[in-house]
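Q: Here's a chain of 435 amino acids. Please give me its 3D structure as tokens.
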Amino acid sequence: MPACRVSVRQGRYNLKMRSGMSFCISFLFCSLVLAQDKAAPSEPKSVTVPAAIDHNRVVIEVDLPLPDGSTSRVHAWVDNGNPDLYLSRRLATSLGLSVTCDDHECSSPPPHAMKVGGMTIPLDAVKVAKIPLKPVNAASVLAPGVSAEINIPSAVLRHFDVLIDFPGHKFSIGEPGTIQFRGPSGKVQVNAENGLIQVPSKIENRKYNLALDVGSCISFLSDDVFDSLAKAHADWPHMTGAVGSANMWGMDEEPNWKLMRVDRVQYGPLFLANVALVDLPKDRMDFFSKRAGIPTAGLIGSNVLLNYRVGLDYAHSTVYFEVGRTFTFPDFDVIGLVLRPEDDGRYAVLGIADFEGKPSVPAGTDGIQAGDHLLAVNDIPLRGSTMGQVWALLGGNPGQERKLTVERGGKQFIVAAKVQHFLGELPDDTDKKKR
């Protein structure tokens, strides 16, 4: 009997020990899971990050995964007016993407995703990434005069809520329904395939569709509408030559671009005044209309929207414009040069704009000629600068003088030029009544 009592007691002891050990193991396992959850919190559903407004373009920092598990942080250009994904050759190579080239451009599979402020933005909506065909010494150049090495196109943005805060220099992106939009709103047409936005608009009580393109530094109007308005309103300020914010990329035709200020544009819920627009040839406008899927008369770029917080509610085909400040940007109080940013970081002179019927900058043998290189402004070197940085140096108050360091045929010389007030504002209604 005593032996039996010992055996029973021993069995009860072992059972308690096993139960206690099971509890400890379960406790440790739960603690480990909780610790892992704390160490790896779920990703945010929306984020807000700083944004640089460079030559009216929105540029942010993004992280892209490298083959070794680390990430590469690069500048990205927010470009809702373009459905195509672009990246530099250097970035494609560092990401381990397979690059193929023809005589005009290169391409690769797109990266799987990028991260904005810790939020993953999938790029699987894009089938192929386009890569500019550049020499080896310009492998990091996506576009001359721009610091970005990748863009965020409309084909990607259309899956999210997007808010561009121009006055606050901020960019927000989030899952649909996560961003609270404010300000006047209006229904728009969003192309379901590529995310391009068309805004119902009016100019002089005639209806048009105008695209919304925060990726463009200047606004455009089709040449037939432009010419019709210019003929009817000879008093509206106009000029020839893409100076200031109209100096988009330094294309060959930019010295001959026609610019005009339009008195009033009803743009969705907004009533815009003194809108600076560039004449866009019919073949270019036909290309934009084809991509948009509906007839298009032009586009409103960032030059008109710098006072606003622009909300893009793709899920509900609605845009919002909240006023953040009231300010008249002197985009055209500048030195009258038309420049081309080159792959090596230098700036070539394409042309000189006239002011009051005369060259706005000393021209000819003793002045500046097309083909010269602009090396510095007030002794500040320009090589490697962005277009925004260069035009900030070339801008100022009308009458201010700038010392331009110019190179021609391997020789450098100095030219003094004055800031001019190009494309002045239209008189307000009070002035019109007085006249």
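Q: Can you summarize the key feature?
A: The first strand starts at residue 46 and ends at 50.
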